[in-house]
Specification:
A: 393 residues, 3 domains, two-stranded antiparallel sheet, 74% helix, B: 354 residues, alpha+beta, Rossmann fold, 2 domains, binds adenosine-5'-triphosphate, binds magnesium ion, transmembrane helix (chain A)
Chain lengths: 393, 354
């Protein structure tokens, strides 16, 4: 009886969380996994050479493959009509074994001319070398590659398979990643500089003043990110509000360049992300007992020392959570730097967007996404470590 | 009081239109233990906060040791304050909490270690130096707060309901501890409490607050046995209030005719005109349920209820016009509910209140 009711209770609670779980699976987990799979999947060789990999199954990986295998390979080559796919295949195989470039082109021409060809060794002696066949078998059979992941951090495999840096000037992912971190860090620092005093003031007031201050922070959360960014786009113009004010006050003679540079991006992102700093700090602050500061004063601490020794250390927990939230959100920011930044201020997400929508290179987009995700995860783990240590202390 | 250490002179405090402390005069002597007792909202905390410097008086002056302190910020007043909810710093160890006031005063490292150890030993927490406040029980936290307020040897220690959050047993233990420390160190303590027993057992003097004024101030027995007003009589302990009219006065004895016709005699220094309405307070434990010696007041009553209280019985007795509460030792009561008996008390044990 009780067991039965326990079971039905469990069924009921499962049914209650089912919608959320399904939602998460379909709209979060599944796309995430798909993107990650795209990043490491390697479809070129297997799609360009569909039959040869089955023909090679019986092969001993040492002798020259049988005539059947050679025919299958010749058929596959002949069937490649897409030059781009052929190019990808050449690059893929050449990266595994050098010499494939000339070999494949020569072989392709030969099989195209002679439809009945079966003996590839006759076309080129190199086909007697099992190393080439091994490369074909590995490529056609393999479904995973680390090429995109390496490229995401400006690395590649050399012809021997060792991981090396890409030649100078061919890719700027590492620079962009580094810049993204720096920008996110700067934005986080700015958010702390503005958010901490703000939260303290908000927490120290009561009634309508507190509501007003919190409303001022929360209001941006209720407007769309695009609208807020567009507003900054207008305000930061050379003849926008800020520059007009500065010039009217006579503080500057000409307009200060605020847009299409890093300063503008930092200003706009700080504003957009400020709520994520203020709210955690605020919630920590209002949890601090009201009588701690009077206690410090009664024990002889002047206001500034009381602040430094009591209030500041106690609010640090909020600062850390806020900093984490801001930093992690800032890492993935796209719209704001895209609209307000210049070419040199683009963050990693615009590179991802370029690969995803511009170059249709889903593999690279996925790989950069993974790198970003990994960086965020590492940060989060560090945070968890620190906070659990603090809780234990 | 000429040797007063703390002196409130016509101190008032208003918040908006509400007068919280009303034209109050109070002197507290050096080494005295003064309790402030009163109902919630009567201004006790506000008075304490003005003394500590967290609130400033709307009018009037406060002086300590002959010097006015109105303009002095809290951190320069050198008073130990024990707050109701301890107010320990959660991010510091017990030892750091206690060391805090010493660090503020620029004491040397070795001196800090020595005095912190001494202070924690005094409150029997010598083994807890490295603990965090949350790892301590309520009573231990309270003792840390006490050690922290005493370690810098302030002249005056202010305590705002320091024992309010503790259970009965612990509270009684801490009451003894605080009294003990008070005697040993000769501190001046201003102690705010809700708890009349606490005030009665600990204080040299008790100030009874009502609506921002001191209704009565005096030693515990003074307050208990000779309450001046109905408010004080009812606030401290239990009491029976009888009302009646003075019918004659002679030799410091008033004869009062109560509602319902019975009459009693009341010792009173003040000679009151016959015909005046008065209220008389009689403590429940002063009434005996039998006719006794010459000169006693005797009221005919009918017992309506007897409640068992462990060490004593509480008896409700009806005089015909009102109900009396009587506290009697268990072994002397032989009466039953419904029985008509005589309740007696001496004229010295009842008291006219205004
Ligand atoms: N900062 C303030 N602003 C406005 N009113 C206040 C303020 N502080 C206290 N009061 C009011 O003053 C009155 C007295 O408060 P106080 O705290 O002194 O009472 P108390 O005697 O300590 O009461 P309790 O026993 O409940 O602690 C209360 O009505 C309270 O609402
Ligand atoms: Mg109070």
């Amino acid at each position: 009886m009780t067991q039965q009711s326990g079971l039905s209770k469990r069924v009921k609670s499962c049914a209650l969380i089912a919608p959320l779980a399904l939602f998460l699976v379909f709209f979060f987990a599944a796309p995430l996994v798909t993107m990650m799979k795209t990043a490491v999947s390697d479809p070129v060789a297997s799609s360009a050479l569909p039959t040869v990999s089955r023909a090679l199954q019986e092969w001993d990986r040492a002798s020259t493959p049988s005539a059947d295998v050679q025919k299958a390979f010749a058929d596959d080559l002949r069937n490649i009509t897409d030059d781009e796919l052929f190019g990808d295949l050449v690059r893929r195989l050449n990266s595994a074994k050098s010499g494939f470039r000339t070999l494949l082109v020569k072989t392709r021409n030969a099989v195209a001319e002679d439809q009945a060809i079966t003996d590839l060794v006759a076309v080129d002696k190199r086909w007697r070398d099992s190393a080439f066949w091994i490369a074909v078998q590995d490529a056609a059979g393999a479904s995973l590659t680390d090429r995109n992941l390496l490229a995401a951090v400006d690395l590649q495999r050399d012809t021997g398979g060792a991981i090396v840096s890409m030649p100078e000037g061919t890719s700027a992912n590492r620079t962009t990643l580094f810049r993204t971190m720096i920008m996110a860090g700067v934005v986080t620092l700015c958010c702390i500089a503005v958010g901490l005093p703000f939260a303290m003031v908000a927490a120290s007031t009561t009634g309508w003043k507190r509501q007003l201050l919190l409303g001022a922070v929360l209001l941006p959360l209720w407007t769309s990110l695009l609208v807020r960014t567009a507003a900054w786009y207008i305000i930061l113009q050379d003849n926008g509000l800020i520059n007009l004010t500065l010039q009217t006050l006579g503080l500057t003679s000409g307009p200060v360049p605020l847009i299409f540079n890093r300063l503008g991006v930092v200003i706009a992102m700080t504003h957009v992300l400020l709520p994520f700093m203020v709210l955690p700090i605020f919630s920590v602050l209002i949890g601090i007992p009201k009588n701690l500061m009077p206690a410090a004063a009664s024990l002889g601490a002047p206001p500034i020392r009381a602040f430094l020794l009591v209030l500041l250390p106690l609010s640090l927990r909020g600062v850390v959570s806020g900093a984490l939230l801001v930093f992690m959100s800032a890492l993935g920011y796209y719209i704001t730097p895209a609209l307000i930044g210049g070419a040199k201020d683009q963050m990693i997400s615009s590179v991802i967007a370029y690969y995803a929508t511009g170059a249709a290179n889903w593999g690279m987009a996925g790989a950069l996404g993974i790198v970003l995700l990994a960086a965020t995860m590492i940060l989060y783990v560090v945070y968890l470590r620190l906070s659990s240590e603090e809780a234990r202390a | 009081m000429s040797d007063a250490l703390i002196h409130f002179d016509k101190v008032s405090k208003t918040f908006g239109i509400m007068t919280v402390v009303d034209d109050l005069d109070l002197s507290i002597g050096k080494g005295e233990f003064v309790s402030m007792l009163g109902p919630s909202g009567s201004g006790k905390t506000t008075l304490l906060m003005m003394l500590a410097g967290f609130e400033s008086p709307t009018s009037g002056t406060i002086s300590v040791g002959g010097k006015r302190v109105d303009a002095l910020p809290p951190h320069k007043r050198n008073m130990g304050v024990v707050f109701q909810n301890y107010a320990l710093f959660p991010h510091m160890s017990v030892a750091d909490n206690v060391a805090f006031p010493l660090k503020m005063r620029g004491a040397s490292r070795s001196e800090i270690v020595e005095r912190v150890t001494k202070a924690l030993d005094m409150v029997q927490l010598g083994a807890f130096h490295e603990r965090r406040p949350i790892q301590l029980s309520g009573g231990q936290q309270q003792r840390v707060a006490l050690a922290r307020a005493l370690v810098f040897e302030p002249e005056v220690v202010l305590m705002d309901e320091p024992l309010g959050a503790l259970d009965k047993k612990l509270r009684e233990q801490m009451q003894m501890d605080i009294r003990d420390i008070h005697h040993r160190l000769g501190l001046t303590i201003v102690f705010v409490t809700h708890d009349q027993t606490e005030a009665l057992t600990m204080s040299d003097r008790i100030a009874i607050f009502n609506h921002g004024k001191i209704e009565q101030i005096g030693g515990p027995s003074d307050i208990y046995d000779h309450p001046k007003t109905q408010f004080v009589a009812e606030f401290i302990g239990e009491t029976n209030l009888l009302s009646g009219k003075v019918s004659s006065a002679s030799n410091g004895l008033l004869t009062v005719t109560l509602e319902g016709g019975q009459s009693i005699r009341v010792a009173s220094a003040a000679a009151l005109e016959p015909g005046k309405h008065v209220k008389i307070s009689v403590r429940p434990e002063r009434i005996e349920l039998r006719s006794s010696g010459e000169g006693q007041n005797e009221l005919k009553v009918k017992i309506s209820d007897i409640v068992y209280h462990g060490d004593h019985l509480q008896i409700q007795a009806d005089t015909g016009s009102r109900s009396l509460v009587i506290k009697a030792p268990r072994n002397v009561v032989t009466s039953q509910i419904g029985q008509e008996v005589v309740a007696s008390f001496s004229p010295e044990q009842c008291w006219i209140v205004s």
